[in-house]
Every structure is written in structure tokens, then in C-alpha cells.
Amino acid sequence: MAADQRGKAATLALRRRLLSSSCRLFFPEDPIKIVRGQGQYMYDEQGAEYIDCINNVAHVGHCHPLVVQAAHEQNQVLNTNSRYLHDNIVDYAQRLSKTLPEKLCVFYFLNSGSEANDLALRLARQYTGHWDVVVLDHAYHGHLSSLIDISPYKFRDLDGQKEWVHVAPLPDTYRGPYREDHPNPAVAYASEVKRVVSSAQEKGRKIAAFFAESLPSVGGQIIPPAGYFPEVAGHIRRAGGVFVADEIQVGFGRVGKHFWAFQLQGEDFVPDIVTMGKSIGNGHPVACVATTQAVARAFEATGVEYFNTFGGSPVSCAVGLAVLDVLEKEQLQAHAACVGSFLMELLGQQKAKHPILGDIRGVGLFIGVDLIKDEATRMPATEEADYVVSRLKENYILLSTDGPGRNVLKFKPPMCFSLDNARHVVAKLDAILTDMEEKVRSCETLRLHS
Ligand SMILES: Cc1ncc(COP(=O)(O)O)c(C=O)c1O
Questions:
Q1: Do 348 and 435 share a structural domain?
Q2: How far does the centroid of ligand 1 lie from the alpha carbon of residue 141, in Å?
Q3: Could you give the number of structural domains in the chain?
Q4: Strand, helix or coil at 135?
Q5: How many Å lie between the centroid of ligand 1 and the Cα of residue 69?
Q6: Residue 112 near ligand 1, beta carbon < 6 Å
Q7: Is 281 exposed, middle or buried (0-12, 13-18, 19+ CB in 10 A)?
């Protein structure tokens, strides 16, 4: 039976029987069965069209024909591993190197963001001879055991914090200790990292790495103040550690102004290791680690081979190359800058109208809308955010929430998201918020009269 011929209820029943409930669905009370994707749209089994505002994996658009074709053509000829000479892997490394600062010139190819971050951890430890890691609060860096350990978002609900992990506050200028009125939040938040490093060192610990998403997404679509990373890198390198920029959600032109989100932190800032995933393969399992000669040489010095069965295969590299081609051909980085600033402007206009919209922050097509109970406390409007997301879904718009308070609406759509999509989504959001406010007002009136 073709998958799209089975009714939604039958699929759900089978899934419940065969898959662990740890593997969750979006909208568990009424999940969506998606059978087709194209561009920024996904279609359910009835043919209903949803606008996808969250899938940053389908970076250049769901099922982009050029990416699909590249995979198909290479699949017809050869798919093997990286132990044979093949042009795709070297062409791909060369193309990626052109997007990065010169120093980041050694590449490893893998299959998932988690694998990339796990390798980054090994590289950092081997290079520095140290073991410990500093991470940002609420961060998520992957699902492997090693990464759960450095992901406060996960380990807080599990075994807790390991002695080799040190947590620094999120550089969140809306909710954190240093806010928009602080004269230099970049230095202030970086000093927090310094404090965390010093307190670890006092206990005899040695720092191997600082890991951070270039724009913390799970932490609530946070835009670290410019200059924060260079300051942090100074503190970390003085402690003998390296700086790892996790670009898994935010790289490949999403931020518009630059190809990599860490470049928002200053022209001269260069991480020691950059990890890539998700968008890199437009849905095909591809990931990459880029690092410096010095880090790579230290890893090589062990004499132990790095081998990954599927990473860097001719097909994966053909896919990666096709994604870069499409980004260039369709000028999607510039498009993200243009549509992103238009969307920010539209959302900004709504802020004047709806007091629940506390903060609207973003860069390119990475935008967060922080919903609050009231301006004075900035208390997260968690239930309201949940309600808005479910009402948007009824309107065939897919959005979700992030942040420790699960109150930040996150926009990170495929890069072909259009000006019309932005207008449509904001109009629906406006209607939902207006309706919600009217309902609250009539409840209050009822209460006053009862
Ligand atoms: C910032 C970040 N790093 C790493 C990962 C792990 O990537 P993967 O799920 O491909 O293993 C994710 C996945 O959500 C992520 O968001």
C-alpha cells in the first residue's frame, strides 16, 4: 500500500504500536500526516497545503529538484566510502573552504550534527590535552551520550551536570542579567564565562573547549551581542581551550548578511572548530567539521584512523555541492536578508498592537517572537504561545516554540520563504492575537458582572 493511501488514523495506530513514545510527534493530539513537500510548502494526505516556517533542514526548499537530481545521478553511478579517491569529496571540501576563513581549512565529513559535535569534542580534547567543556545554559548540541552531557537542555532532566561540564549564562539581552540598557553586554556576558572558567580552574579542572551555537536556538532564538564571541574566545584560549561554533541550525546563509552566523560577531573572529549539519544536505544525512591545521595535526598524531562508513560518500558530497549551487544560483542568502528584514518589520508593527509581543529579535531568516504575560516581569507566556501555535496550525501555518519558557515563536523557514508568505503569516498571527485578546476581555467583563 502506498504510504499516502493509508488513512491518518491507521498510520497513527501503527506508529503507536511500533515506535517508542520517546519519539514524539508535533501536535500529538492531532498530528499531521505529511506526504509531499515542495519549496516552503508541505502537503498532507488530503492535499492541504501548509506553510513551513520551521524546517531549517529543507534549507533550499523541500525536495529541491536540483538536489534530488544530483543525488539520483550520483546514486546511479557510484556510492562508496571515503577510502577511495573521488572528486566529489575534494571538490566539496574546496567549495566549503571558500565560504570559511582561511584558517579553517581541514574537513571531516559525517552523517549528523551529533556526530559532528562529538568529533569536535574529541578534536578539542586531543589538541588541548584537557577534558572539560564550558557550555551555554539551555544549549542543545546533540543526542549522543557525549553531547547530552554538554546539553543543559537535556541533562537537567536526566542525570544532571557532570563534573567536567561548566555552564555559563545565555547571552540573552532580553531576559538575562545584562539587558538592552547595559552599556556593554558583550563584555559583561563574556566575563561570566571567565568567572565560570576561573571557578573550574580553582577546582583543578582544565578547559578543553567552549561550545556554543552561533545563535542559540533551543535557548530561545537568542542573538548574542556583537563582540561576545571574540571576548569569550580570549578567555577560553587563555585557559588553554578552543572555541567550537555549532552552526548546525544557523549556517549556510540563513542570517543573510553573512554565510556563517559566527561572522556576525566581527570580521576578524575565527572559531577553532565549526560544526555543520541539518541544512548542509537539505534533508540528506550530511554533516561536516571544519578546523585548523593545528587541531587536525594534533588529532592525526594519535596515529588512529578517522573513518566513517557513510560520511563523505560520493552521493553525500554531490548533495552538498548541489545545495551550495542552489544557494548561489537562487541568491538565497540575499533573499534571506531581504525577506527576514521585511518579516521583522511586519512583526515590529504588530508589537505596537499586541502587548503579548514582548521582544522581536532576529537576523535574516532566524527570528524569535518572545511572548510575555506582562511587560514589567517579562514572564514567559507559555500557554498563550502554545495556543497561538495550535491556532496557526488550524490556519495551515507550521510554527513552533523554543526557549526555557517555551514561549518564543521561532521562525527558521526554508530559505525560499517569500515576502507573500511573510505577509500572510503575520496577518494570521494578528487575527489570532486579536481574537485571543477579545476572548480575554470578554472573560474579564463577565467576571466583573458576575
Ligand atoms: C544546535 C544543534 N546541534 C546539534 C544538533 C544535533 O544534530 P542531529 O540531530 O543531526 O544529530 C542539533 C539538532 O537539533 C542542533 O539543533
A1: yes
A2: 6
A3: 2
A4: strand
A5: 26
A6: yes
A7: buried
Residue owning the nearest CA to atom 13 of ligand 1 = 142
Pocket of ligand 1 contains residue 412 by CB under 6 Å = no
Boundary residue ending a domain (310, 330, 350) = 330
The whole-angstrom distance between residue 295's C-alpha and the CA centroid of its chain comes to: 25
Contact 165, 135 (CB under 8 A): yes
Ligand 1 centroid distance, CA of 114 (Å):
6
- For residue 289, the CA-to-ligand 1 centroid distance in Å is 13
Tell me: the pLDDT tens digits for 63-121?
999 999 999 999 999 999 999 999 999 999 999 999 999 999 999 999 999 999 999 99
pLDDT in tens, 31-71: 999 999 999 999 999 999 999 999 999 999 999 999 999 99
Left if phi > 0, otherwise alpha if psi is -120 to 50, otherwise beta: which for 283?
A: left
Q: Pick the last residue of a domain from 289, 304, 330.
A: 330
The 10s digit of each residue's pLDDT in 235-260 is: 999 999 999 999 999 999 999 999 99
pLDDT, position 1: 54
- What are 347-390's pLDDT values in tens digits? 999 999 999 999 999 999 999 999 999 999 999 999 999 999 99
